[in-house]
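Example for reference:
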Amino acid sequence: MISSYRELLDRWRQFDRRAEFDISRLKFTVAIAEKDPSRLSLRCNYCSGPIVMSAHATNELSNCQKCRKPLPRCAICLINMGTSINESKEPISDWFTFCISCKHGGHVSHIKEWFKFNDECPVWNCSCRCGG
């Protein structure tokens, strides 16, 4: 239901409204995660199975636990989501962010750095102006 609404906003080019919706959902998710910070749950692109990452886990994830398909890779460093990049003391630097138009993305810290100097998507042969 949520993904259908988000896709509808994309089709209608209601990007501001979509961003507000995503921010509201993120605030809600963060509030829930603060109650149990040891776990964060996401869904696989392929099978919609849960991707569960534990803050105390010693193994890093590169595949869905259910269908075993690879998790998305950062467009900059090509490391799978779920693998710590350990570049910053800020936990959000390991999180992933995605363009709502082309759906490409990467680690928050890498994408922020890329768009300091570029307007186009970091994925080769993608002409989306994600940062513009």
